[in-house]
Every structure is written in structure tokens, then in C-alpha cells.
């Protein structure tokens, strides 16, 4: 039963890509940016859900390498910029200097950050500021998102605890992006939690470089 | 005289979008791998654009068959596909043996990216 559900999900994901690609292309031909931005947003959600399925089923192997969190965040910020600009919103990055790289599969890390970013964007009111933090903590490198003008927590969670050691759960309402972020996090051996700096994930610095 | 491009694309709307983007070329559009092989035997193409996710024989099977013919060795191939190929595949020996000139992932690549890739490959071809 679980296998056929997985198969259906994979099939659905791949099938949905086609009309969404067609919509994004038609938007490009007609210079209709707004439509294209939403189509690409949906395509990213599908890709991140499928990524989780493929890695967790062993279809593709994880490739661990030391990744600089700051550059990963900047890459995601660049991709997300049109989506946030569409809402009149902007992003502020607070990336601590001297952060050590983390040992992760780059696709998974980008998938987690991207999914969280999109989930946050869906809850942002017009002209809000999304803040992305990356800093060293006693448990590792923390990447988190926050905004002073969002009801993000009440949109996406039935119950939010402020205990940063406890993973967030109990999603409320549709949030494929949040679910994708959570699932991808489990593959990274991490969990989505909440701290004073927002909702995010704590990653372990690279062991490869620690040995150097 | 317009350069000839073979487009193997099963989705009619996407095919139409690509034809509109590449108006300066003569495009022959077919929906399947086998019709692509048939078309290649009837017309001398300067470049092939292919979606890997095809009904019947896959785009990958087309690539293997296409590259098995001596006459078509020099024809550049641009893969424009919804199939997301991991880096390990793109750097593999078997993929490199297919001599795909460019691989573009449809969900993130624009039609403008495709046009640039096509123009680049055809200008490389003209110089050789």
C-alpha cells in the first residue's frame, strides 16, 4: 500500500511538472511575470517533495560535502527574490562571519532552506521583511527565518513551543513546503525548531575540516 | 537559408512555445523517439532538442540509438527536459559518451536559456 502511494506521489509530481512548465513558458512569452513566478514556485515545491522521496527510497544517493551555509542562503535568496518582490516584500540576511562549513548534501540543504523560505513567504503580508539568520550556536550552525510582521506560526502550526530542543510539529492548513522542509531535514539528521531568532534548523560543522 | 532543428517533445503546448521562441529556425516537431529517428533519416538536421520523458522509447534510448549512426555523430544535441539528472549522472562516462552538448532542466531554465543554448551550439558548428 505504501509502495503504491509512493509511486502515485512520484507520478503525480512528474505529471504536474508538465503543465506548470507550460504555464511558466507561456508567461515568459507573454511577459506575464506574476503568473510565471507562481508557476515556478509550485515547481520548486514539487521538486523538493520529489527530492525527499528519491533520497529516502535510495533512488539517488546523498553526496556529503563541506558547504558554506552563507553561500547556500545567498543562492536561495536569489531564487526567491522574484517571489518576495511580487508581494512587495524584501529579505535581510544576517550571516555571521567565519562560519565553518557544514557536511551536507547540497541539494538537501538548498531544498530545506528553499522550502522554509517559500513556506514563510506564503504567510508574509504585503511589504513585510523576511529575515534570514545564520550564526554559530553551541549546538552547531543555526539557519533560521523570522519576520516581525508575520503570523507564520499560527498559519503553519497548531501548537508552537518555544523550547528550541523540541521539533515543531502539528502543521495546520496546507503547507507542502513546510512538510517538505521537515522531511528533508530528517535526511540531514536535523529537525526544524523554533528559537528567539525564528524557525529554522541547526546543522553540524564539517568534520572533514575539523580534522585538518 | 534557415537551419534545421529536430524537436522531440510530446507536450503540444511546450512544443508550440519552443517553436515560437526559435522562429528563426526551421523546426520539425515529433512526439516520440521512434518518429525522431524516422525524421532524422529523412531530413538533414543541424541540431536536435529532446525531452527525455517520452512515451514508448525514452529520450535516453533515442540518444543511444542516434549516436550509434555514423552520419549523425556531429549533430549537437540539447536536452531540454523535466527529468532532473543528478550531477553524478551528468559527470558519468556513459552520459559523456552520448555527447549531449547542453542539458537544461525545464522547471528552472527559461525559453531564453534554450534559445541561447541553441544559438551557441549552432555557431560552434558553423566555426568547425
Defining traits:
heterodimer, A: 212 residues, alpha+beta, 5-stranded mixed beta sheet, two-stranded antiparallel ribbon, B: 128 residues, alpha/beta, 5-stranded parallel beta sheet
Give an account of the 3D structure.
- The complex is a heterodimer of chains A (212) and B (128).
- By secondary structure, chain A is α+β, with helices and mostly antiparallel strands.
- Chain A is 51% helix and 19% strand.
- Chain A is built from 7 helices and 7 strands, in the order H-H-E-H-E-E-H-E-E-H-H-E-E-H.
- A 5-stranded mixed sheet of chain A has the order 2-4-5-7-6. In chain A, strands 1-3 form a two-stranded antiparallel ribbon.
- In chain A, helix 3 packs parallel to helix 4 and helix 4 packs antiparallel against helix 6.
- By secondary structure, chain B is an alpha/beta fold.
- Chain B is 42% helix and 18% strand.
- Chain B has a 5-stranded parallel sheet with strand order 2-1-3-4-5, sandwiched between helices.
- Chain B starts with a strand and ends with a helix.
- The mean pLDDT of chain B is 94.
- Classes of the chains: A alpha+beta (212), B alpha/beta (128).
- The interface between A and B is medium-sized, with 21 and 18 residues.
